[in-house]
């Protein structure tokens, strides 16, 4: 039987929760679905297919998904043909439980099953059965998937993106005691460098200016299935013709090698920013978190980076209220963040995750204490970030202008080629980032979109900078 999807144009509404890995997976989903003649829409009312791409890294993830699903119940009642799917980490974790608890849900697809989505949807369409696919695969179902993404979505369609992420590896073998990732994303697996480079070249051809190499722990790229090491891969990407900027995320402090540190001095296109999650400044806590480094190891790496590259931005993640965290452990964290002066910190209250070691530890910390510690940390960091931003006042920095800012015209950082080519010279609110990954807002002509321009910083707020084009 011919599938309906192949004949008629359909619409996909996709909602993405969580990290950059999920954003990237959603792009793949869009690419795959376009092979079924399915375009994206911003309006669930117009959609034939609704996909929620979920995250379970912290708190109440399942509840969030059920409440998001609740919002589509009425729609499904009005239009029983609507197909609703849940993917991502919660899908991986909950599997069939999701189907049981949400009778209006049709498809559940786990983190290793994205490539199967078109088939799963066809199955639902033709048999009206409800399906869950949460197997783990010990290989990356790779080339075909990526061909789809960019051939159908990125290149042939007139969509222009200034910056794009490329997944270079997936999964994690570290088993930090608080973290669900190894359970929902599986073991580390690296893609072949030739596939990554081929993908990067396609993106550059499509005029992408900045590439971010993405993985849960990029430093272990090459340990599991790839032919070269991470620094080698990074160097090759930096040297591709036509690329302007290269970034990577996320690094693990224990695996950040000397070779990688040196690369910042050798590769001009490598952005001067590193995100290096510290999690805690207390040796006792780091140990029970199973992080594999001490406060001193971490600090030494930072001091080296700061000495070699003054002005390089360093950001981190901190968890407060990990089980057993005493006042003195928390002070160790506070002292270290004051000493290092990070450019920015993403800070979280510890959230027990099912299956992880730490969830069963005694001495869980009360929510009140977690709240207090989080507030203290965030207030301190706000001052540090603000004063770092103020140091930039009057300086001229190169900004890659990504698109219109949220305040201007809906604010997508994605623009349409047709629009771009006819760019009128209207002055509008634009937004971009420095090599250090700081957001700069500016009023300038639309013709600057997608270009790197010198921008003079004229205002510094705690969370952003304002500038004007400097000629
Ligand atoms: N509770 C709180 N924060 C967590 N993170 C990961 N797992 C948890 C958890 N169970 C944070 C870490 C990590 C970031 C992506 O999310 O800081 O670096
Ligand atoms: Fe989670 Fe630790 Fe792996 Fe990061 S390194 S994904 S925190 S287990």
Domain tally:
3
Strand content bin: 15-25%
* Count of individual beta strands: 21
Global Rg: 23 Å
CATH class of the largest domain: Alpha Beta
Widest sheet: strand ordering:
2-1-3-4-5-6
Q: What is the assigned CATH homologous superfamily of the largest domain?
A: tm_1862 like domain
The average pLDDT is: 89
Largest sheet: 6 strands, parallel
Distance between the termini: 62 Å
Ligands present: 5'-deoxyadenosine, iron/sulfur cluster
Q: Percent range for helical residues?
A: 25-40%
Explain this structure to me?
The chain has helices at 4-7, 20-34, 61-70, 73-78, 88-94, 96-101, 117-127, 143-155, 181-185, 193-205, 230-238, 258-266, 283-289, 295-308, 327-340, 367-390, 417-421; strands at 10-16, 38-40, 49-54, 83-87, 107-109, 131-133, 159-161, 163-167, 169-170, 189-190, 210-214, 245-249, 273-275, 313-320, 344-349, 396-404, 414-416, 427-434, 439-445, 452-460, 465-469. It is an alpha/beta fold. The strands form 6 sheets. It has a 6-stranded parallel sheet, sandwiched between helices. Strands 16-18-19-21-20 form a 5-stranded mixed beta barrel. The protein has a 3-stranded parallel sheet with strand order 8-11-12, sandwiched between helices. The structure holds 5'-deoxyadenosine and iron/sulfur cluster (SF4). 5'-deoxyadenosine (5AD) binds next to strand 14. Iron/sulfur cluster binds next to helix 9.
């Amino acid at each position: 039987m011919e599938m309906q999807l192949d004949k008629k144009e359909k619409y996909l509404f996709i909602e993405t929760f969580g990290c950059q890995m999920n954003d990237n997976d959603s792009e793949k989903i869009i690419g795959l679905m376009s092979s079924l003649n399915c375009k994206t829409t911003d309006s669930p009312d117009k959609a034939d297919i609704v996909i929620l791409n979920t995250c379970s890294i912290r708190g109440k993830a399942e509840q969030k998904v059920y409440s998001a699903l609740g919002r589509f119940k009425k729609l499904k009642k009005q239009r029983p043909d609507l197909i609703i799917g849940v993917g991502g980490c919660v899908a991986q974790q909950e599997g069939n439980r999701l189907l049981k608890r949400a009778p209006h849900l049709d498809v559940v697809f786990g983190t290793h099953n994205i490539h199967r989505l078109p088939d799963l949807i066809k199955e639902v369409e033709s048999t009206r059965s409800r399906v869950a696919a949460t197997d783990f695969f010990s290989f990356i179902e790779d080339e075909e998937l990526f061909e789809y993404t960019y051939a159908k979505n990125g290149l042939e369609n007139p969509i222009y993106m200034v910056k794009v992420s490329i997944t270079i590896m997936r999964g994690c073998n570290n088993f930090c005691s608080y973290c669900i990732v190894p359970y929902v994303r599986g073991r580390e697996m690296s893609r072949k460098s030739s596939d990554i480079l081929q993908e990067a070249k396609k993106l550059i051809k499509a005029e992408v200016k900045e590439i971010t190499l993405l993985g849960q722990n990029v430093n272990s790229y090459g340990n599991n299935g790839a032919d070269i090491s991470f620094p080698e891969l990074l160097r090759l990407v930096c040297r591709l013709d036509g690329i302007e900027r290269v970034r990577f995320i996320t690094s693990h402090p224990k695996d950040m090698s000397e070779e990688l540190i040196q690369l910042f001095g050798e590769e001009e296109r490598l952005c001067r920013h590193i995100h290096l999650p510290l999690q805690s400044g207390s040796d006792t806590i780091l140990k029970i978190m199973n992080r594999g480094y001490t406060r001193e190891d971490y600090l030494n790496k930072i001091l080296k980076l700061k000495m070699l590259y003054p002005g390089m931005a360093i950001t981190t993640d901190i968890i407060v209220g990990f089980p057993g965290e005493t006042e003195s452990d928390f002070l160790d964290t506070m002292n270290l963040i004051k000493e290092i002066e990070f450019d920015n910190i993403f800070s979280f209250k510890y959230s027990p995750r099912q299956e992880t070691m730490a969830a069963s530890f005694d001495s869980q910390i009360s929510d009140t204490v977690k709240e207090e510690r989080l507030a203290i940390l965030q207030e301190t960091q706000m001052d540090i970030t603000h004063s770092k931003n103020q140091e930039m006042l009057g300086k001229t920095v190169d900004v890659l202008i990504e698109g219109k800012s949220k305040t201007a015209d809906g604010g997508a950082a994605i623009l349409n080629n047709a629009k771009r080519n006819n760019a009128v010279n209207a002055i509008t609110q634009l937004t971009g980032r420095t090599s250090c990954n700081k957001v700069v807002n500016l009023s300038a002509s639309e013709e600057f979109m997608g270009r790197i321009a010198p921008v003079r910083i004229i205002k510094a707020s705690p969370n952003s900078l304002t500038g004007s084009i400097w000629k």
